[in-house]
């Protein structure tokens, strides 16, 4: 399936309409996801880049120089485990304002949903496809590391144990072993972000909040002095990044 234009995949019908006079005809709502970023509650934008001002859970002071990450497969589920999936992706880049909002390409039926979710990164099937937009953004992963695409590029500087500035590249990809001609994949490191229940009554804007500090915090305290660069071929590091990422996102304000 071509992925260059958003395609709505209806996995199962969420609602059926009968002929009973008492039936209420559902109407549609357009939904936009707005991605915001904070450091333990302090708003972060690209205006905060390149200044060492953030303290991580290990006590290291750091700056953010670049932060961009991939989201895909937006899903709405109901109480009958019926769902619809928007088979789309977006590269969120804090330095590109119009990338921070994602309006779904088709309307969603108004009603109660038990969960709204998306994938951080690509699942393995999606990761094997070719995407012109991501190629142009140089978001590719080298073939020797399994190919496909990054899930996240998070770059900055930190004050190391000698109080010297040192760079870090906190990059997330599919965990890989045996880099080279025949890489192997010990564990999936993409994950599903569950935002929780929502009742759609009208066109809606959903705020998706990323607490950047959580990448270094829970359940694994990250030590930048030990793990700062060359993380992509380190499958153990990729698994830790994936584990920490599950605490990063949450649903904020819903406006309708």
TrEMBL record:
Domain called Copper-binding protein MbnP-like: residue spans: 30-228
Highest taxon of source: Bacteria
Family annotation (InterPro entries): MbnP-like_dom
One Pfam family named in its UniProt record: MbnP
Protein name: MbnP family protein
Annotated organism of origin: Winogradskyella maritima
